[in-house]
Specification:
By secondary structure, the protein is an all-alpha fold. Helix content is 75%, strand content 0%. It is built from 18 helices and no strands. Helix 4 crosses helix 6. The N and C termini lie far apart (61 Å).
Length: 373
């Protein structure tokens, strides 16, 4: 009974998601469809979780955390390094990979230096979302826009670079509000990581990323990773957060039900016929409700206002946990069960959303002119 109670408490987001799914099904008289689930995302997450657990198992994250702490002198500098690292990783390896790699690392660092928790957690997540906006393959909505409108790479960067420069300037300025409290003096631990273990870890990561980035069919890389981990250390399967996978499946099913409602479709169609400003704001607002990836799928069906859609859904990744699946993933990876921590995470996200959203809105005519295709 104690174990069941603990499981329920630790998987609050999962249980809330399943309750919302049940209510949505009853309210709209619509059964969930298995085709609504993006199984590519689920398989990617499962593979990455397994590989991350192996990195944790061989103490690689502990070693990297010590190196970051040695580079920094204050809590602010630790946060700045992690924010920059999150943005950089997200550009090339997607926002989900950045979250899955860095949130466990952040938790290890926080355990050692006991600095601020909510603010850096939120900023790392925001950095992953905004960093991923730079490249066509940084996040699913970019990849879809890039392919759907058959954009050339130079034309894509004409749209994405201005947003990236504005957002990261704002984000780095925000990090200066973190107190520059000196880090405590820590005893240096000699992490004796075996070279073979490290080579194995990176080999697993490369195979996983080859599937995530579609160089190899994802189903093959997932099976390969599962078999490899089974042979190396089968207990790592017990460390995977299966609640996160169930939560994501639940959200895909909820979004599928909402996306089929005539009221939603008619409202979006009417809004997208107004102006670029309304399209941009629709992208932000729709992302808060059904997440920015499904919002992109829906909006591109009714509009060719590429710049406004791109800006809306990428800025719209900030805000609610559902605005970007990376937000939800960060909360799950950080084991956030406290209402105070969740409110703080939301507050920081919404403050940055209002600031960045407002700046982009004011500059929208110039951005459209600058990025015109």
């Amino acid at each position: 009974m104690k174990n069941l109670s603990r499981t329920i408490k630790q998987q609050k987001i999962m249980w809330v998601t399943l309750l919302i799914l049940l209510l949505a099904s009853l309210l709209y008289h619509s059964l969930p469809k298995i085709s609504d689930v993006n199984w590519q995302t689920i398989l990617s997450l499962f593979s990455l979780m397994l590989v991350t657990q192996y990195f944790i198992h061989i103490k690689a994250l502990d070693y990297l955390s010590q190196k970051i702490i040695n580079l920094a002198r204050t809590h602010r500098q630790v946060a700045q390094l992690l924010v920059l690292l999150a943005g950089f990783l997200a550009m090339f390896l997607t926002n989900d990979v950045a979250i899955l790699s860095l949130i466990p690392l952040f938790l290890v660092i926080h355990k050692q230096v006991h600095g601020p928790f909510v603010f850096p957690l939120a900023l790392i997540t925001i950095a992953a979302n905004l960093g991923s906006a730079l490249t066509p393959f940084g996040n699913p909505q970019n990849l879809y826009i890039y392919n759907h409108y058959q954009l050339s790479t130079p034309n894509f960067f004409k749209i994405s670079v201005p947003l990236f420069l504005i957002s990261f300037a704002l984000l780095l300025l925000t990090t200066f509000t973190i107190p520059a409290t000196p880090l405590p003096t820590l005893k240096q631990t000699n992490y004796n990581i075996k070279p073979l273990s490290l080579i194995t870890a990176f080999a697993l990561l490369i195979v996983t990323l080859a599937g995530v980035l579609h160089f190899i069919p994802l189903i093959y890389t997932t099976i390969a990773i599962a078999l490899a981990v089974l042979l190396i250390n089968h207990l790592l399967f017990t460390k995977v957060d299966y609640g996160t996978l169930v939560t994501f499946i639940g959200f895909f099913l909820i979004v599928g039900i909402l996306g089929r409602q005539k009221l939603v479709i008619n409202l979006v169609t009417q809004l997208l016929q107004q102006s670029s400003l309304i399209t941009y704001l629709t992208g932000i607002l729709l992302s808060q409700i059904i997440s920015n990836v499904p919002a992109t799928f829906l909006m591109t069906r009714f509009s060719t206002d590429i710049i406004a859609i791109f800006l809306g859904v990428n800025v719209g990744g900030l805000g609610t946990p559902l605005a970007s699946f990376a937000n939800l993933l960060a909360l799950k990876q950080a084991h956030v069960h406290s209402g105070r921590v969740l409110l703080g995470f939301l507050a920081i996200n919404f403050i940055l959303l209002i600031l960045l959203g407002g700046i982009v809105m004011l500059l929208l005519p110039q951005l459209i002119k600058l990025s015109s295709l």
